[in-house]
Design goal:
This protein is mainly beta. It contains no helices and eleven strands. It is globular. The chain starts with a strand and ends with a strand.
């Protein structure tokens, strides 16, 4: 099983970034996918969730209206489009697959929002 995040980096406040997570080794289309983040000295925070079909999404209040989660079950990928980024969005972002007996994590990708 592998979840490989990409797309992180340094961006100025107000900018945009798109994270991607490529999945392999399990039946991607049967599982809910999530993005979490963890800022320095803080706990891990659930940012966005998308159900197995992609027809339902949910977001943390802190990112609603700024972040969009999407998935492509044909390509086994889940993306997180982030816009109007703020310094408080600085964190390591993790991709997570969740389902019955499934709880897989990626290694994380760093997002730094700074001028």
């Amino acid at each position: 099983v592998q979840l490989v995040e990409s797309g992180g980096g340094l961006v100025q406040p107000g900018g945009s970034l798109r994270l991607s997570c490529a999945a392999s080794g399990f039946t991607f289309s049967r599982n809910e996918m999530r993005w979490y983040r963890q800022a320095p000295e803080k706990g891990r925070e659930l940012v966005a969730v998308i159900n197995s079909s992609g027809g339902s999404t949910d977001y943390a209040d802190s990112v609603k209206g700024r972040f969009t989660i999407s998935r492509d079950n044909a390509k086994n990928t889940v993306d997180l489009q982030m816009s109007s980024l703020k310094p408080d969005d600085t964190a390591v972002y993790y991709c997570n697959a969740r389902g019955r007996l499934v709880n897989y994590w990626g290694q994380g990708t760093q997002v730094t929002v700074s001028s």
